[in-house]
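Sequence decides. Consider this:

===
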Amino acid sequence: MVKSNRKLFRMRDFSYKRSVFLVYSVFLSFSAQSQNLILFEGNVHSGDIIAARVEEKLYIRDTLSEKPVSLSNGLYTVVRDSISLFDFIVFNKNVTIEYREEKIVYRDSINSQFYRFIKNHLENKFVLPDLWQLSYAEAVHVLRVVFPQLFEFNGATHKKVAEQYWDLNEEQFEFLKNSPFVRSYLNNFYDRMISQHYDSIFSCIESQMTFVDDEDLRTFYFSVLTNKYETSKILGHENVFASIVKGFPVTDFKWVEDSVYSKLQDKAEKIRTNPVGAMAINFPLKDVKNNRLTSLKDIFGIYKLLVFFDTDCGHCKTAMPYYMEVVEEFKDNGITPIFVTVETTNEFLLKFIASMGYDASFFYYHHTINADDFRIKYDLPSTPQIYILDSNDQILAKNIPAKEIKDYFSFLINK
């Protein structure tokens, strides 16, 4: 990865919706590096606005006059009366563009090849030939940034793949960070190029961020990655979220207010209490059938389905039949159900079991709230909360939707 100390432009932005957007603000200066002259001919006239596309926003860079415009590498659009007329890219070459009768002609090879590629292989779905790069030789460096999935990364290890993937030259790196493609570039890497095991993901994040010392770019990366793994439905990805929040300094989280950062910290701390892959914390409980005191570790099961629920919870009542179906189907495969009520009395639990006709031996409670209680040791922001454990109480999975638990156990037992 290329190290860069250059700062992303701090500019007032305006929202963009494909064709129509609202211009706020003032004209701003742009980077003095990698400047290229842009000449417009035809139906482009003084007063039209040039704006840079960064993520889903546009940033005003200049207004057109009769003179060529000087721009740094990036993706731009020409705007008139809040309407985007056309896009163009700048990448280490002067650009001449002809715009007549709403038709665009790119006279430079990079733009003509880049947009020909877009038209052929995205709009018209042409199949890429084996030697496709020969047809777009001038635009290959830009396509490498915009569509990294088209290129081969043949590293023998994840580390080598990561080095190849992020081995951008200075111009490519500058184009990437000032373009709408940063998020897709990150997502392609973290979704497709590395193992989806949470430890591997966080290791790559740690390695990558040692090369990113551009303050604004670091801020953007952390906003994307934190949200990505906080909201991911992939098993164990919440561990990545917790490691990001707890493993990097507060200066990398300037994209959120202090109050939100505190909530992220609290959430991460709770996730780290009982993360996937760790040993579930033991706690005392009593079985409803015999009213005998036992504990999580003393209940035997090749697999344990641990469910924290509330008898008055609508979601729990809806989910319970799915849990029972799993217990019935996999009872000969060593699955042990442990349904633990979060209530502090038995008043409703016994009525619930009787009314539903459930086996009382599946149900447990613990009404003494102290330092050993599960309410202290487990994060239970809502019910139901599900943990799947092995015979040693290692957490194999957690918070799987009720409808998907059967599929998970089928995979677990037959793998």
About this structure: The chain has three domains: 14-120, 146-273, 284-414.
